[in-house]
């Protein structure tokens, strides 16, 4: 069990050796009266089995590589094997759906015919620690300027619902609470893996974002380095502490609450606001009122409060835009494509300087119009906003509800 949320965690191994974990909040599973299916009958080779090359020679499994960009100070994983990952499968071949009752077992990832929330290692990971491959720095072509090392780490998939047509916004508060428990569990566990420096929970939603599987799901990455945005925030936070003695992210939240102009919604433990320098045409941040480094550090009350406020925000997002007059669906809401990114303090470095918060943003700037990253943004990293944070906040306040729309209500 995990806290008072009553969530049962059950771990198993898939046919190729990857870990899968059920997080159950419904009976008879949560009490232990029954257990989800744990065996995986697929005839899959072990993920780290020797590989037969085009020339017929058998070679040991190799780790994906990452290379250091000396111009930016960033590590860049080279995950060429992901070119063969699943892309927009038909409904009867959805690898994230539960197994069909009575049907011959297909190549789906979840063995049981139902689940509440489930997490498993990605079959096509960009970061993976291969046994026997040391995490050592070498140099490409023997040049000191080009350090390389294995792209070790771990990539997991989290399925929010067994319903392929559903969404995280529609799971209801109990199931959202279970999702939060799963995020916290995986953040704590992955942070204990050797070499992991940062854990990132996120969701990509919508074809406009580039999603290739539309089943409601997210991902969890365990990086063997600090991601560029985290490194930048850490640098800024340390400079702020040195100059003012304060915590940058706490000071930002308090300043937004004092100003009030961009605050969208508040609860006992959380606040939702549009940041003063928002970049995206739709953007909102959720931050805890208390200094919290990561999801595992949240109290039970903070997790319960987050479940409700997060659902309110997600449901408001699906009312942010409506189809224009004269169109076939005039006036109807548009499902918002978005990225939801949980910024957490790193595993070791900077835990006293960085603070947990969620950043949710969309590339949709108007019905049928996307925010493209053109020359200034893509070439120089110099952002140009198409609107103002105040206008974004005004629209959020128009569409956010005081309560959660529960499923079946």
Automatic annotation (TrEMBL):
Domain Galactose-1-phosphate uridyl transferase C-terminal: 240-358
Pathway(s) where this gene product acts: Carbohydrate metabolism; galactose metabolism
Domain Galactose-1-phosphate uridyl transferase N-terminal: 63-226
E.C. number(s) listed in UniProt: 2.7.7.12
UniProt keyword list: Carbohydrate metabolism, Galactose metabolism, Metal-binding, Nucleotidyltransferase, Transferase, Zinc
Pfam families for the chain: GalP_UDP_tr_C, GalP_UDP_transf
Reactions accelerated catalytically: alpha-D-galactose 1-phosphate + UDP-alpha-D-glucose = alpha-D-glucose 1-phosphate + UDP-alpha-D-galactose
Obligatory cofactor(s): Zn(2+)
Record Gene3D superfamilies: HIT-like
InterPro entries xref list: GalP_UDPtransf1, GalP_UDPtransf1_His-AS, GalP_Utransf_C, GalP_Utransf_N, HIT-like_sf
Start-end of Basic and acidic residues biased regions: 36-49
Domain of life (superkingdom): Bacteria
Region span, Disordered: 33-62
SUPFAM superfamilies according to UniProt: HIT-like
Sections of the chain in a coiled coil: none
A molecular function (GO) term: nucleotidyltransferase activity
Homology family: Belongs to the galactose-1-phosphate uridylyltransferase type 1 family.
Protein's UniProt name: Galactose-1-phosphate uridylyltransferase
Lineage: Bacteria, Bacillati, Actinomycetota, Actinomycetes, Micrococcales
């Amino acid at each position: 069990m995990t806290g008072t949320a009553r969530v049962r965690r059950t771990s198993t191994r898939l046919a190729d050796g990857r870990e899968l974990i059920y997080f159950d909040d419904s009976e008879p599973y949560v009490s232990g009266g029954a257990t989800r299916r744990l065996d995986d009958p697929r005839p899959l080779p072990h993920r780290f089995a020797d590989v037969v090359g085009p020339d017929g020679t058998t070679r040991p499994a190799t780790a994906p590589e990452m290379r250091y960009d000396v111009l930016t100070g960033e590590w860049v994983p080279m995950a060429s094997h992901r070119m063969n990952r699943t892309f927009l499968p038909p409904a009867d071949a959805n690898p994230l759906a539960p197994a069909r009752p009575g049907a011959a077992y297909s190549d789906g990832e979840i063995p049981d015919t139902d689940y509440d929330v489930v997490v498993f290692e990605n079959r096509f990971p960009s970061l993976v620690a291969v046994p026997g491959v040391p995490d050592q720095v070498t140099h490409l072509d023997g040049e000191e300027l080009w350090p390389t090392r294995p792209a070790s780490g771990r990539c997991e998939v989290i399925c929010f619902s067994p319903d392929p047509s559903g969404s995280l916004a529609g799971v209801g508060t109990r199931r959202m609470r279970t999702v939060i428990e799963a995020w916290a569990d995986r953040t704590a566990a992955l942070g204990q893996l050797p070499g992991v420096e940062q854990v990132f929970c996120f969701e990509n939603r919508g074809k406009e974002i580039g999603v290739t599987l539309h089943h409601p799901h997210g991902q969890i990455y365990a990086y063997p380095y600090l991601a560029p945005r985290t490194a930048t925030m850490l640098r800024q936070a340390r400079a702020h502490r040195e100059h003012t003695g304060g915590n940058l992210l706490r000071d930002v939240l308090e300043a937004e609450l004092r100003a009030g102009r961009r605050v969208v919604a508040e609860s006992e433990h959380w606040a939702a606001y549009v940041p003063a320098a928002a970049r995206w045409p739709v953007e909102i941040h959720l931050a805890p009122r208390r200094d919290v480094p990561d999801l595992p550090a949240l109290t039970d009350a903070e997790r319960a409060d987050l479940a409700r406020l997060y659902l309110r925000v997600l449901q408001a997002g699906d009312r942010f835009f409506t189809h224009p007059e004269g169109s076939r669906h005039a006036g109807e809401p548009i499902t918002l494509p978005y990225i939801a990114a949980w910024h957490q303090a790193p595993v070791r470095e900077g835990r006293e300087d960085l603070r947990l918060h969620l950043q949710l943003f969309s590339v949709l700037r108007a019905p049928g119009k996307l925010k493209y990253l053109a020359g200034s943004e893509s070439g120089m990293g110099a952002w140009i906003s198409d609107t103002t944070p105040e206008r974004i906040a005004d629209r959020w306040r128009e569409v956010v509800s005081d309560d959660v729309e529960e499923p079946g209500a």
